[in-house]
Design goal:
Oligomer: single chain
Number of domains: 2
Radius of gyration: 27 Å
CATH topology of the largest domain: Arc Repressor Mutant, subunit A
Helix content: 40-55%
CATH class of the largest domain: Mainly Alpha
Distance between the termini: 102 Å
Number of helices: 11
CATH architecture of the largest domain: Orthogonal Bundle
Order of helices and strands: HHHHHHHHHHEHEE
Strand content: 5-15%
Amino acid sequence: MRRIKRIALPAICALLVLCVAVSGLYLFTDLFRPDDREAEAGTAYSSGSTGQTVRQIQTALKNRGYYTGKVDGIFGKITTAAVKKFQKDRGLKVDGIVGPATMKALGISASSGSSDENLLARIIYGESRGEPYTGQVAVGAVILNRVASPLFPNTVSGVIYQAGAFDAVSDGQINMTPNDTARRAARDALNGWDPTGGCLYYYNPKTATSRWMLSKTVHLSIGNHAFCL
């Protein structure tokens, strides 16, 4: 009877170690592989989220009478409560999470955030290039304050292109390519930095001719611009 050649013990141990390692790798991958909900997390906003899209959510809720807090781009308890109430009234799943269905019901486009940033950077560049950085952010903040105010259109493009609102639109400077400073100022404004403390207007005292604008009380001055509530 032919004897079966014995496999060396070290080789068997090495083979076992390799099998365990491969099995462990698959197990680790399965445990940490995102499921469908996690993969789509970037399209949903909930408590703890921040940024321009959150500002848009708050503005849309505010314009519909659901949100009473400050439009600050921070998704907190007041925003969550407003979202839940809106969802309940619209027959949506009441979970306080703004996913695709709630976004659509609020009238917010998934791509509007980047479009707003680009447009805001262009108006900042056209209106305030050469101003101190804080002054450039302040110009962006005034536009966003208008978006949140019932006195003005409720979108960034609506505010910027409102007839006669900004010289940079009238003279075409809004079509210039913004520099990195203007883009950074736009992001800072969209992320909630408001150096003006809520102002809705600004003008250059050296060049302004509107009696109505000149009659408004100046809240603060940054660079060549006076900011008014």
